[in-house]
Design goal:
The complex is a heterodimer. Chain A is of the alpha/beta class. Chain A is built from eight helices and ten strands.
């Protein structure tokens, strides 16, 4: 019998989740946030994760990104089985293997756009010049070269999201997780950002899960996965 | 380091004000420490600088040179104690004097019978007296070559001794009064000039030196056991047990304790507040893979830079103050005290940031998904 990590490694899946259950204990009650969820994302696939509030989207995304451990089940990211990881191992995993773009706070307010990218290098084993070159290249690709020295407060909403995307790509991740990336943007800007996400992911062959309420995003995704009451709706 | 320095450079006013506040507190601490040192030196510096290892007061004198009188009977008992290698008279009185023909002022004379028992241990300049009209003066008050005339009491035109200052000694005042060390014959002449009715000049204390193999404290114990009227003290005890010295030290210690609380409270509260303020950023950093230990290190680097910067500013403000004389009190730059407070405040500053550090350690990276602060 092959392990999940071996399976993900041989099949080239960016993410393979099997029978994921997450139960929260609230006082004496148990709340089942995820109930035996299976999800596989190919190495260059963009998946839109759609569902109503409280359906378990963010919990699923958090487990895939190593922010949360499942109560039961297995998770492998790029062949790396993480469900048994300690807190310290998960921290290292998040730093090295995944990228995050969160719904609200995405940038460090006292760092410039360029420094917000370089912080990824600063919190791990430093690559120095290589990291600086990569940050400059990402800023150029994202059309932010002239904004590199600006603090987040000096950037528009769309520019902030682009910097966040650049930060998420700094560590060359196998999987990028986007949590409601357009919720704070108007429809035109939201459309631009989603197209940018698609272009960047496809150009790099990087897998992505986009948690969203926004139906327009699903058009840019390779596949849409619906989740309801903690279960994947087929 | 990257995060710590970047944050400080982007919030220069906020961190600059805190560094200045710590600097002012350090300046106040060092100044008060120096005032305490100068005040106590002014009170009892002469006792510290004199050469006798043991001083024997009369119990009635309550450990003040001027209040103590040794009668011949008590002197004989002291000299008879086993372990006394050498003993000599030391007297002290305050006189009205004219220095170099100037206005009348007060000066304390300390008369000693034998060199090495009551005269200054070491001079800062000049030489030791070779006759009864030569004296060594406190360096803060006299210069070599000054002539000090005792103002006589009694009818106008009465004669009085005139002393020439031939040597100086630093930190050698007593009772915050300009002080002169004079051989016994000169002291006796001064007392008789000021009090023509005096027939005999008795010593204030007996200075004693132990024989080889007997420690100063052992000699003190033996002398005190020999007579209930004797109150023998080592040189350092004589200085520290002088009435008023302990009270001054206690008062200043209370002030230092308050400063010792204020500095870490100010820095601790500051870092706790900014930790709360940047909770979202810290949560984001944890979510993208920053170790909590790295964030705590960044916090501690800021604490060390803030307190260290404050110490540098405090010392820079304090140093010029040590070049001036504050009335009769000399403000000294004491490297030992500066080092003590620098290390102490750094340790207290770091300790005060531990509450903020605990908050950082408690951050849950999952809060980044909800936009929460994690604190």
């Amino acid at each position: 019998m092959t392990t999940l990590a071996e399976s993900a490694s041989t099949t080239g899946h960016a993410l393979e989740m099997r029978a994921i259950t997450k139960i929260y204990r609230v006082a004496d009650d148990e709340v089942v946030a995820l109930d035996h969820v299976d999800l596989t994302v190919a190495s260059d696939e963009i998946v839109a994760l759609v569902g109503p509030s409280g359906s378990g989207k963010t919990t699923l995304c958090s487990i895939a990104g190593g922010l949360l451990s499942p109560t039961n089940g297995s998770v492998a990211v790029a062949g790396q089985e993480i469900s048994g990881y300690s807190g310290r191992q998960l921290t290292e995993f998040r730093r090295a293997s995944v990228g995050f773009v969160f719904q609200t706070v995405n940038l460090i307010p006292f760092l410039t756009a360029r420094e917000n990218l370089l912080v990824v290098d600063e919190i791990g084993p430093r690559l120095g010049r290589v990291a600086r070159d990569r940050a400059d290249q990402l800023l150029e690709e994202l059309g932010l070269t002239d904004r590199a020295s600006n603090l987040p407060a000096q950037l528009s909403g769309g520019q902030k999201q682009r910097v966040a995307i650049g930060r998420a790509l700094m560590n060359d991740p196998s999987l990028v997780l986007f949590d409601e990336p357009t919720s704070a943007l108007d429809s035109s800007l939201g459309d631009q950002v989603v197209r940018l996400i698609r272009d960047e992911m496809k150009a790099r062959g990087t897998a992505a899960i986009i948690v969203t309420h926004d139906d327009r995003i699903t058009h840019y995704a390779d596949r849409t996965v619906n989740i309801e009451d903690g279960r994947i709706a087929e | 380091m990257f995060l710590a320095l970047r944050e400080m450079s982007r919030a220069r006013v906020r961190f600059g004000l805190l560094i200045c506040a710590v600097g002012l507190l350090v300046f106040l601490i060092l100044t008060q420490q120096a005032i305490q040192g100068g005040l106590i030196t002014g009170f009892v510096g002469a006792l510290r600088q004199q050469s006798a290892p043991v001083l024997v007061y009369s119990v009635d004198g309550e450990r003040t040179l001027q209040g103590s009188v040794i009668d011949p009977g008590l002197e004989a008992k002291i000299r008879g104690v086993g372990g006394v290698a050498e003993a000599g008279w030391v007297g002290q009185s305050t006189f009205t004097v004219r220095v170099d023909g100037g206005a009348e002022s007060d000066a304390a004379l300390i008369g000693y019978e034998h060199s090495g028992l009551g005269d200054p241990s070491r001079l800062s300049s000049g030489r030791r007296p070779v006759g009864p009209t030569e004296v060594v003066g406190s360096a803060a008050d006299f210069t070599v070559g000054s002539r000090v005339r005792i103002v006589p009491s009694g009818p106008a035109g009465a004669t009085s001794p005139v002393f020439t200052v031939v040597g100086l000694v630093k930190d050698a005042q007593i009772q915050v009064t300009p002080t002169l060390f004079v051989p016994w014959a000169g002291y006796e002449a001064a007392v008789k000039a000021a009090n023509p009715d005096a027939t005999t000049v008795l010593p204030s204390v007996i200075a004693a030196r132990p024989t080889s193999g007997v420690s100063d404290t052992e000699l003190v114990r033996r002398i005190n056991a020999a007579s209930p009227d004797a109150d023998a003290l080592t040189r350092s005890q004589a200085a520290s047990d002088t009435p008023g010295v302990a009270q001054v030290q206690q008062s200043f210690q209370l002030i230092f304790l308050l400063y010792g609380l204020v500095v870490p409270l100010v820095t601790g509260l500051f870092f706790l507040i900014i930790t709360f303020q940047k909770a979202a950023a810290l949560t984001l950093l944890r979510a993208i893979g920053a170790r909590s230990g790295a964030l705590v290190r960044s916090l501690l680097v800021q604490v060390v830079l803030v307190v260290g910067g404050g110490i540098v500013i405090g010392i820079a403000l304090f140093a010029p103050l040590t070049l001036i004389q504050l009335g009769a009190i000399t403000i000294r730059f004491d490297p030992g005290a500066v080092l003590f407070w620098s290390v102490g405040l750094l340790v207290l500053g770091v300790a005060s940031a531990l509450v903020a550090a605990r908050r950082v350690l408690a951050i849950d990276p999952l809060e980044a998904t909800t936009g929460g602060g994690g604190l």
